[in-house]
Amino acid sequence: MVVGMKFENAAQFRGVLRDWCIRNGVDLEFLRNEAAKVTAKCKSCEWRIHASPIQGGPTFQIKTIKGEDTCARAYDNKLANASYMQKRIENAIEIIPTIPVQQLKNRILSKCNVDVSRFKVMRAKKEALERIRGDDAKQYELLWDYCETVRKCNPGSKLLLRKVENYDPPVFDRMYFSLWVLKKGFLEGCRPIIGLDGCFLKTVYESQLLVVCGRDGNDNMFPIAMAVVQVENRDTWGWFVGELLDDIGGMGTNKWSFISDRQKCIVEALKDLVPESEHRFCLRHVYENFKMKFKSVELKEYFWKAASTANKREFDGFMKKIEELDPKIKAEVETASEWLRKINPQHWARSHFPVQSKCDILPNVAVHEEIPQGSQAPPPLSQEQPSAKAATRGRRQSPQTTQPLAPMQQQVGYQGPRNASLLGNVNPASSSVPATRRYNKRPSISEVLDKMKEREKRRQQDS
């Protein structure tokens, strides 16, 4: 800042002066702040600046700068308000909407040399999000128009919106969202297994996002339908799963397998709607509950071995090993094996899974894998995140799909849990056959089916 510098108007001068004072650590106060005259000084020393318009126009010019700023740097500068910070973090928030507040605080400190409170950063982040995607309250007002637009542009899509009539005006209650292309892709290209999960939407109007996902031939999660509800309970999950089954034609049948995180409300809802269907529990959540009582590393090892093996005899052997590692000492104390046997192995052990789902996955990562950045977005943005991610992933992988097998199965040396026992040994280090011959020769469909029948026959004999 030097005498004689010119600015388009007073607003531009104030903005430049604010930025200069923040970067140089000057704690400024305005003595006169008018349209025709701006005078300011440092609170801690005699430095002051004066600017006014040039005669005959709005152009502002610095007329005088008195003294020299000799005071210590002010890191807690009052000029760095939420509006000032919002302009400097907007680009970062647009790229990563879920960027933590502490990370933004550190970014402001490194770029502007000013230490601001977390509350100010939160306000700045809120202003930036509103500027990027609009006001959250107005998003809800547009939901009816949004549903009609989607139905018109995507015939066959199912969107349901329910409101609470007891209020004036009525307020949002829940919303179901399923695009026709997602339903078609699931029915024609995915295994008959459905993962159920939910997460909080961290907006001003707290709600929860429920998502159901399938698994395609390339082992990717494939979103089928989403719902936004006020609370996650038996009623909302029952409503959501009921609408889903009605949408995919599965109501009253047991052709679908489900996997969830063992929430009581999901278990009860599935028992009411599809009592005969297979319901698996996410092994990651089962183990989190298991290790709260049993923290032994050896127990952890045999727990995962028992869950992962596809052989019932091996499963019984691992369970016996768990009994030996945690023997019964007191009658009232529950052992690790007793805790596990309370949960039917059909829910968590691969050796007891039926083969109809063509899938033996153990963890359920439906929501947390599909919406890494959607938890702070209101509807309908939160519901578009999973479908947009699936479309982007499919477009990226489509050039690789030049053979009947999916890209993952085309990889040399791929050992997936579903095809390792059918294709034989595919480890290059353990075979003397040249790689060109070993990987060009693939089993025929009849050979694969024969091995599947043999494996199923052995399972029946074991049981």
Automatic annotation (TrEMBL):
Residues 397-413, 422-434 have a biased composition (Polar residues). Pfam families: DBD_Tnp_Mut, MULE. Residues 194-289 form the MULE transposase domain. Residues 372-463 are annotated as: Disordered. Residues 448-463 have a biased composition (Basic and acidic residues). It comes from the Eukaryota. InterPro entries: MULE_transposase_dom, Transposase_MuDR. Residues 1-62 form the Transposase MuDR plant domain. PANTHER family: MUTATOR TRANSPOSASE MUDRA PROTEIN, POLYPROTEIN, PUTATIVE-RELATED. This is MULE transposase domain-containing protein. It comes from Sesamum angolense.
